[in-house]
Protein 1
Amino acid sequence: MLSRPFNLMGILIHGDPKVVKEGYKIFPSGHTSFYACPNIRSFASLAFLSWYLCGKVKAFDRRGHAAKLCIVLLSLLFAALVGISRIDDYWHHWTNVFAGSIIGSVVASLCYLLFFPFPHDINGWAPHASIKMRENIELHSTSIGIDIV
């Protein structure tokens, strides 16, 4: 049995209105990328968390602790599981999830690097503002002859 046609954005459409409107929400998958789309949001937030943890636990300090990398990669694994669940539940095509994950990862990387140096940097654990403030304090203390411990 055919459903009654309805108007969507000036176009006469046949079919279930809920199914047709859901079809307009597929690219990119919001669950893996950014705010408007939940998939983008999960990759953006969890990739940012991964960058942040990488700097805070000093994952690249050449001390060889595999546990540090496991902690860092765990958040990316959770983000990937969100994307896989979207594909498995037939909410999105894999290309939509992949595009959302790329967008979310790029946004997370840009946001992290705006406030923090690269995690492999000697001061990778601290924000740019904190590093600048410490440099100013050290410069001022050496100019007046005070030793900072």
Protein 2
Amino acid sequence: MRNKVRSFWIEAQLLYHTHRANRIQQRLRHSLERQKDGGKLKRQFQSFLAAVRKQERCNVALLRQANKKILSVTRPMEGLEITRFAQSQLTQYDIAVVTTHHECGDWGDVSPSLWLQNNSNRLEGKGRILSVHTTASQKRVLIVSEEGQACLMMEEEYPCWNSLYPA
């Protein structure tokens, strides 16, 4: 019964944050159509990305309810480097979604053994963590983090890709 109540609460939060992100997105479109102040547009876009991050945290919490492999330990990445190729291929929305999943302990499409290793490294607070995510536009992204620093890159840029994610 307790899990059902928790799931209901998380689903309610997800609906709220989804609605909020949609409202901010509508305001952004309206402002763009009217050619409003660039500073205001930037603030609205940052609000939109913040709402998307909250929405994705709720998504990960729902995944955690269904799948106990996902840790409840959340650690923000202090320094995130994004390769030039990844910057040219991804939107800021894509980056916000995949980094939020990584910070919340959702390692994406990695092997079960790598998932366990990532969980162990996260709990110990040391070691390398690798996560693989697919964006809404079906682009595969790799995030490598170690001691708070992280690098986001496309699958084509990582030399050992096949050993991480067998086809």
